[in-house]
Amino acid sequence: MKVHRLVGKMVAVFVVMFVAQTVHAVDPNRALSQYMRESWGLERGFTGGAVTSIAQTADGFLWIGTEKGLVRFDGLSFHVFQQQIPATLPIGPVQELVADSQSNLWILLANTTILRYHDGKFDPGHSQAEVGITSIGRRRDGSALLSSLALGPLAYHAGKFDVLTAPQAPGRSDPAQAAVMNDELSSRLSWATGVATHRFAKPNTAVAAVAETSDGVIWLGTPDKGLFYLRDGQVHSVALEVDDGRVNCLLPMENGELLIGTDKGVLRWNGSKITREGVPSVLWKVSVLSAIRDRDGNIWIGSSHGLLRFNALGISSDDEGTVASGLAVNTLFEDREGNIWIGTPRGIERLRDSTFVSYAVDNDLRSASGGPVYVDAGERTWFAPLDGGLHWLRDGKIESVNAAGLDRDVVYSITGSRDELWVGRQRGGLTRLRFTNGAFETKTYTHADGLLQDSVYAVHRNRDGSVWAGTLNGGVSEVRDGKLTSYTMANGMPSNAVTSIAEGADGTMWFATPVGLTQLSHGQWRTFTENNGLPSPDIDCLLEDSSHVLWVGTTSGLAYLNSGTVHIPRNVPEALHEQIFGVAEDTNGWLWVATSNHVLRVKRDRLLSGVAEEGDVREYGTIDGLSGVEGVKRQQSVVADPLGRIWFSMNHGLSVVDPIRATHSTAPVLAKIDAVSVDGVPIDLATSVRVPSVRQRMTFNFSGVSLSVPERVRYKYRLDGFDRGWSDPVGLREAVYTNLDPGSYTFHVIASNSDGVWNMDGPSLNLTVVPAFYQTNWFLLLCAATVAVLAWAVYQWHVGQVTSRMDIQFIERLSERTRIARELHDTLLQSFQGLILHFQTARDLIPRDPSEAEKSLDSALESADQAMVEGRNAIYDIRSSTLVDDDLAHMITTLGRELGANSEDGTGPRFSVVEEGTAKPLDPIFRDDVYHIVREALRNSFKHSEAQKIEAEITYGKRLLRVRIRDDGKGIDRKVLEEGERAGHWGLPGMRERAKRISGQLAVWSEAGVGTEVELNLPGSLVYEAGSSQFLLRFFRRIGTRDKGL
């Protein structure tokens, strides 16, 4: 298909329409190939097949009607709607989609069934086969417009359908019959109320397209009966100028005009008749399937063989083979962000504006590799590829310069003024070009003319007209009035290699070299290096901005020179520490920077202040229209043109950006909370959200619908009641919280679009984490009460234990006193009783037999001596039993020695102590009882056994403590052993009582003339001192033993 110019008359018809538009969607000046194009088919997850209609609802979702059903798209993923209404058939092929201003999505199926989608639900119609909806559209006020075979044009407004046609004239039909029929049909529309009781007379056929023009006229296009319009309730037919012209689409224009798309081309209703006047001839015989008019006034035509764009600049087609090439364009749609969506038999495609426009120079030149770039006052963009040649671009066309051998040389640098151009060449020196009389006049300076070197890498033209030429490694030359002045290292330059040249506002000349930045001012040279603060002395580019700050691009990042001091910007992205190839300033105070691997826009004032924040730096890539992000090392690879645009010469082509359009924000992203799950279990968001606190992981899933660049959408979220502020921007569309305390929370989420603009009006969700029973107030009160009761019980237990210990001590003292009483009774009291008898006998014998009385008195004195010994022993036995020695063997040894020393001859029997096993300390209370039992056994042996040898054997077993006391004395009378005690004596019964009280076993063996053995066995778990783990067991067992003793 060839591209045709509009005829003059057609331009006049439409020019008003274009002038009225101020906000651009897609740039109308671009070729179709310069839009960013993306398509979705089966290979990218779109399974709908052929696309028949496209619409967008208020929540930002794109709805796609296909031959297989209904699909929703959020820019990243597709959701196919199957059977959405219980007890109905699945949604089948979709014919048309319309989103009205009341947040309704109208779905017309191929079987004339109409569905309404509202608030996440589908509403069905009833018996609509009789109503016969065949087409839907949208009125000027945003309400839905429908065409019914039975009722004619209908408008849905304020929750009801209104019939737009007037009643039939009297006599045409039976009014009563018509009223009954229409009442039936009215009841079969599920949302219809107040439908007028009349019938629609014509057209007596299905309507394929319906639209309302700016003058309020409703137009009805049919597949076989032509065109009709409805005005003042009456339907009128309009004759078409084509035979068998099937009307496929209707496009309202300004001033009540209408474009009619048919199988035989485009027609125009000019307000009074159907005509082809004003329609480009290329559209006369095109089979038009769809048409839209975007917000810029561009008319997009979908034909059976591709896409066309129609505006004041002419007609553009997809001859480039980039957009819907060769495919039928079934439907077209412009979304709220200005993107153009194309429905084809294979899927959907999107055309969108990009920040950058890239020129496919590789189609016209032998190399796409960039080089220096310069834009002159005539809006010619000059560029020189790395492989050689010099070219200019204007109005989308590329021209080349062949003069002075430039087509055979590599151009390193380009500069100029209004009427001339200067280029630095690889081999040909410095060349000036002037365009006069349709040809270039050239003048070249070489080494023969005084130029230091024929390889000129950097060229700069000063404001006074002089030109500086920096050579590859020979120094720098100044051309003034045709004369050359040269400077080298001999004149003060740090290097003869010059990579960039800039002029300061005060006339200072700046030269970039591989070893530093050189200043020439008033004939004085000064060089700045790393010692002065440069990140690297190897410099590639220079720029003095509008505030007279000199920006320096080095191999290690960006720096700037202000008031004679070098600074490195702080808090900047890592990309600004890469090799800097080019810097330019726009009129809005932004710096545009090309590095070795990035293209950035940076707020200049923020760089100077060192407080660059989010939104002050923007990175661009291929998704923004760049053909690549690798810069090229040339004197001028990034420049600003007279119109304020910024040109980039990149490694893969030439790109330009309009800063005004780049900073113009696109539509805000509409964030939406999609789902909430707790431990993987979804929560119904239709009701109040209440979550048990026993749950551990809460996940919020959200999305932000942006159809332009959904990959760049970022989110911030905040959970009131937990977070102190917004989260950092993230691309992940979920937030996870764990172990939330009981309470009320509110979840918020906001999203930013591809330009980094945040939509602060985001959704929120209230939720409550319900406390578990152990987190409720009543449970806490119950716990407090329980603690109080337990404290009281512990206190009572403690008091009881103290009382028990006091009782035990009292019982021990009472037992000891009883024993002492028995001892006194057995010893001193009996001795005193004997003394009394002796004295009484002596008294009675004195008168009768003094000698006998004397003998009685001697016997009394002997008894007194014995009583004294017994008294001493009694006092010894009465002493305190609170022992501090933990060594049982040592205590028994000491006791044996004392008892032996108290014997009548002062020596006593041989006494020894034998230990078996590892000695273990004894519990103090049980130790005293063991000591008393052993003491009583030893005392009896020493006092009564008349033994020659007494032995104590102590066995420390793991579970048993055994103590044996044995002697080789005269033994104990068998009768005493059988009865367990000697009449009037308490020693043996006392030992048994003590043993029983401490859960021990006491056994006594004796044989006359052989000796006696006393054995005491005690459980080790009771008498051995143990750790804290056995404390309670021992304690209660001890209490038990004391109770038994009572």
What does it look like?
- The protein has 1046 residues and is an alpha+beta fold.
- Strands 59, 61, 63, 64 and 65 form a 5-stranded mixed beta sheet that branches. It has a 5-stranded mixed beta sheet with strand order 66-67-68-70-69. The chain has a 4-stranded antiparallel beta sheet with strand order 1-28-27-26, with no helix packed on it.
Instruction: Give a short account of the largest sheet.
Output: 5 strands, mixed
If helices are DSSP runs of H or I spanning 4 or more residues, what is the number of helices? 12
Average pLDDT score: 83
Tell me roughly what share of residues is in helical segments.
Answer: 10-25%
Structural class: alpha+beta
Task: Categorize the overall geometry.
Answer: elongated
A few lines on this structure:
The protein is an alpha+beta fold and 1046 residues long.
Topology record:
Elements: H1 8-19, E1 36-40, E2 51-56, E3 62-66, E4 69-73, E5 78-81, E6 94-99, E7 105-109, E8 114-118, E9 121-123, E10 133-138, E11 144-148, E12 152-157, E13 160-163, H2 175-187, E14 209-212, E15 218-221, E16 227-231, E17 234-238, E18 247-252, E19 258-262, E20 265-269, E21 274-275, E22 288-293, E23 299-303, E24 306-311, E25 314-317, E26 331-334, E27 340-344, E28 347-352, E29 356-359, E30 373-375, E31 381-383, E32 390-394, E33 397-401, E34 411-416, E35 421-425, E36 430-436, E37 439-445, E38 456-461, E39 467-471, E40 476-480, E41 483-487, E42 500-503, E43 509-513, E44 516-521, E45 524-528, E46 539-544, E47 550-554, E48 557-562, E49 565-567, E50 580-585, E51 590-595, E52 599-603, H3 604-609, E53 617-620, E54 638-640, E55 646-650, E56 653-657, H4 659-662, E57 670-678, E58 681-682, E59 689-692, E60 697-705, E61 714-720, E62 734-738, E63 743-752, E64 758-759, E65 764-770, H5 777-848, H6 850-878, H7 888-901, E66 910-916, H8 924-944, E67 949-956, E68 960-967, H9 974-979, H10 987-997, E69 1001-1007, E70 1011-1019, ...
Parallel strand pairs: 59-65, 66-67
Antiparallel strand pairs: 1-28, 2-3, 3-4, 4-5, 6-7, 7-8, 8-9, 10-11, 11-12, 12-13, 14-15, 15-16, 16-17, 18-19, 19-20, 20-21, 22-23, 23-24, 24-25, 26-27, 27-28, 29-56, 30-31, 31-32, 32-33, 34-35, 35-36, 36-37, 38-39, 39-40, 40-41, 42-43, 43-44, 44-45, 46-47, 47-48, 48-49, 50-51, 51-52, 52-53, ...
